[in-house]
Amino acid sequence: MGDGTGKDDIASAKQQLRRQVLARRDGLDEAWRIEASLMLGDRAQAFLGSVDPGTVVSGFLPIRSEVDIRPLMAALGQKGARLCVPAIVEGELQFRELRPDAPLEPQGFGTYAPGSEAAVLDPRLMLVPLAAFDTAGRRLGYGRGYYDRAIERLEEKGISPRLIGIAFDAQEADCVPTELHDRRLAAIVTESRVIDCGL
């Protein structure tokens, strides 16, 4: 019974923090968000450096007030990365190859992904969206656990993807509550800095 209460408390704390931080992000000026996204992309490129040709990199297409990393993804593609973005298939994430000429289809939650004809890839480097983060690399997602389960499936295949959180400074929290299944980030890139989380 105590364990159940503890889990409920953590879930409640997560939900409260998620609401607070997303409200902060939603309140950012739209023109400023565009500029900050470009600054973040430049910072991420400098941090990531060159990528080996053919390295599979997962990114994401922005929804609502998320950082727009499409210019960053395009730059990584020009360096030889093989790009993919998540599609929701039967309640789980599937990383589908993103090609310039490929049509996108709605996935729900306001996001899009390549269609079922796209190649399914296993990313080695993941640029991960989030609701909130702290400097220890703890990440708060949107509450559905998609990324945690997808990372677990990759690990079951023997793949340990490098996880890079992508967020605005405004999404930082003092301490993100976590559970056993929550994965920590190796680093977080914001518009002003790179946080090395020591993983």
Can you walk through the features of this model?
By secondary structure, the chain is α/β, with parallel strands linked by helices. Strand 10 (187-189) and strand 11 form a beta hairpin. It has one domain: NagB/RpiA/CoA transferase-like (Rossmann fold), CATH 3.40.50.10420. It has four helices and eleven strands.
Q: Give me the count of strands.
A: 11
Shape: globular
- Report how far apart the termini are: 34 Å
Order of SSEs, N→C?
HHEHEEEEEEEHEEE
- How is the biggest beta sheet arranged? 7 strands, mixed
What is the residue-averaged pLDDT?
93
Strand order of the largest sheet: 3-2-1-6-9-10-11
GO molecular function, one term: metal ion binding
Pfam families: 5-FTHF_cyc-lig
Protein name: 5-formyltetrahydrofolate cyclo-ligase
Catalytic activity: (6S)-5-formyl-5,6,7,8-tetrahydrofolate + ATP = (6R)-5,10-methenyltetrahydrofolate + ADP + phosphate
From the structure above, extract its key features.
alpha/beta, 199 residues, disordered N terminus, Rossmann fold, two-stranded antiparallel sheet
Give the SSE layout.
Elements: H1 2-26, H2 30-48, E1 56-58, H3 70-78, E2 82-89, E3 92-97, E4 104-108, E5 111-114, E6 125-128, E7 132-133, E8 139-140, H4 146-156, E9 162-166, E10 187-189, E11 194-196
Parallel strand pairs: 1-2, 1-6, 6-9, 9-10
Antiparallel strand pairs: 2-3, 4-5, 7-8, 10-11
Helix pairs in contact: 2-3
Short description:
The chain has 199 residues and is α/β, with parallel strands linked by helices. It is 32% helix and 23% strand.
